[in-house]
């Protein structure tokens, strides 16, 4: 085995040499910071001149930190709702676009749903902040115009509405990479299978349930992993929209990490939060790979 690998390497060493810059960049911006954060999680470190070894004190403090538990609860809500949305709405949109017979119209819809990919996220979040603004926001103005003044709120400024307002951002949740993943999965299905479904007299719902849905299971699994990773790591939307408020009603672990590290210079504590999030993400990814089947493994 080792001799065979050695011969393969000698034969294709030029190709492997082109990977050296890639691994160098990954090591510089990914691996080295990760292992440095792992080490610093055991220190009282301010990111500069204070660096004192304190063992597991950061983790003891973290698991006694009420704000951290509130942020975990909020992250759980964001993750569950995000997964449910990304496993349904973009998939249905992709199915509808896939079955449009007119090529020009189909391409127009594809372009329409891909456009959000080229819009910076900060622009989208600022736009939604303007929509949800309390006194002059678009949503409150609209409600007032149709006679529903009693429904108006400071959507991002009230604890009972802030969390769900953040979830509502990006409505109708279709545009972007998720839509393309599902569309690519549908386009990979053999046309013969659709012909067979037509001959069997399947209606649109039966075709979706018994043909399309099982054959895009791999895409569903990928989207689930990507959504979980995104929800656990994401903090810029909360930072722009609410900064974790009002109170702690929209605080997330990633934003809490950012605040502890860059607002209070508690880099060691922030590193401990990051390590816990990494382990949680690793566990969820393993569970997804272990219990969610790919298309190829369907019985």
Automatic annotation (TrEMBL):
Keywords: Cell membrane, Membrane, Transmembrane, Transmembrane helix, Transport. Residues 72-288 form the ABC transmembrane type-1 domain. PROSITE patterns: ABC_TM1. It comes from the Bacteria. CDD domains: TM_PBP2. Belongs to the binding-protein-dependent transport system permease family. This is Sugar ABC transporter permease.
């Amino acid at each position: 085995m080792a001799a065979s690998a050695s011969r393969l390497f000698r034969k294709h060493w030029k190709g492997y040499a082109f990977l050296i810059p890639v691994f160098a960049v990954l090591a510089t911006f990914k691996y080295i910071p990760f292992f440095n954060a792992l080490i610093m999680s055991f220190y009282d470190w301010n990111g500069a001149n204070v660096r004192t070894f304190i063992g597991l004190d950061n983790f003891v403090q973290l698991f006694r930190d009420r704000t951290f538990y509130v942020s975990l609860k909020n992250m759980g809500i964001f993750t569950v709702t995000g997964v449910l949305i990304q496993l349904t709405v973009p998939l249905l949109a992709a199915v509808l676009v896939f079955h449009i017979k007119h090529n020009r119209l189909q391409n127009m819809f594809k372009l329409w749903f891909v456009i959000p990919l080229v819009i910076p996220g900060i622009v989208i979040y600022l736009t939604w902040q303007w929509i949800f603004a309390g006194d002059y926001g678009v949503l409150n103005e609209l409600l007032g115009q149709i006679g529903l003044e009693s429904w108006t709120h400071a959507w991002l400024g009230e604890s009972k509405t802030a969390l769900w307002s953040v979830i509502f951002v990006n409505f109708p949740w279709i545009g972007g990479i998720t839509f393309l993943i599902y569309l690519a999965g549908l386009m990979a299905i053999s046309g013969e299978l659709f012909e067979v479904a037509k001959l069997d007299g399947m209606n649109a719902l039966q075709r979706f349930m018994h043909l399309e849905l099982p054959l895009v299971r791999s895409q569903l699994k990928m989207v689930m992993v990507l959504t979980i990773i995104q929800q656990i790591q994401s903090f810029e939307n909360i930072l722009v929209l609410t900064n974790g408020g009002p109170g702690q009603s929209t605080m997330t672990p990633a934003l809490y990490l950012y605040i502890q590290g860059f607002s209070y210079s508690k880099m060691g504590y922030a590193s401990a939060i990051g390590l816990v999030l990494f382990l949680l993400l690793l566990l969820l990814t393993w569970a997804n790979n272990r219990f969610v089947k790919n298309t190829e493994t369907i019985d």
